[in-house]
Specification:
Elements lengths: L5 E5 L5 H10 L3 E5 L2 H4 L4 E4 L4 H10 L3 H9 L4 E4 L1 H6 E4 L12 E6 L10 E5 L8 E5 L4 E5 L4 E6 L2 E7 L2 E4 L10 H12 L2
Parallel strand pairs: 1-2, 1-3, 3-4, 4-12, 5-6
Antiparallel strand pairs: 6-9, 7-8, 10-11, 11-12
């Protein structure tokens, strides 16, 4: 058995290339996922940023919405950044009409909570389980309004929850893949490895 986990990056929108590079740097075999048969071949999945309503529509269009929901519910390790965090939420406070999520984390999220594109910023974020602050890039970033009892809060920024974990699901409001700091991806790769 290959000890190196195969981790997919949902390649519908967002920083797919950057996540593939970060995962490879964290000692995973990384590949893009656009079809259900590609999803079936991975040990874990990253859901990148982008626009959550667009990701929702494209996942439906590519026949991935139900397979993704089923695999996540069955325990597929998954990591969502920014819009990916929204896609892993069980509930969105202000969803667009027809917007759906994959679910997997018992949390309520607020879209674009940190402001518009021109209010994007970078900040050091202290993440539980990682030594030293992680440089977080916040671009039209959501935050977590509330979490259920099973959810572990890993990081906050200015009093708002920006990183969470529930079982095999991890999510951050920010984009670590844009910084060259691969420690959050390494944390996820370790989560995937622990499940194999």
């Amino acid at each position: 058995m290959n000890p190196t986990p195969v981790i997919g990056v949902l390649a519908l929108q967002g920083d797919v290339r950057e996540h593939l590079i970060a995962l490879a740097a964290a000692d995973a075999v990384a590949r893009p996922v656009r079809r259900p048969e590609e999803l079936a071949e991975v040990d874990g999945l990253v859901v990148p940023g982008g626009e959550s309503t667009t990701i929702s529509k494209l996942a439906t269009l590519f026949g991935l919405m139900e397979p993704l929901r089923e695999r996540i519910a069955a325990g597929l390790p998954v990591y969502g950044t920014c819009a990916g965090l929204i896609m892993l939420a069980d509930k969105i406070l202000d969803p667009r009409s027809g917007q759906e999520t994959f679910g997997g984390i018992d949390m309520i999220v607020r879209r674009n909570a940190f402001g518009r594109q021109n209010e994007s910023f970078e900040a050091g974020v202290t993440v539980a389980g990682i030594d030293g602050p992680v440089e977080g890039v916040f671009i039209r970033a959501p935050w977590v309004e509330s979490v259920g009892a099973e959810v572990e809060v890993l990081a906050e920024h200015e009093g708002h929850v920006v990183a969470v974990r529930q079982g095999r699901a991890l999510a951050t409001s920010f984009h670590p893949e844009l910084t060259g700091d691969h420690r959050v991806h390494s944390l996820f790769v370790d989560m995937v490895r622990a499940e194999r």
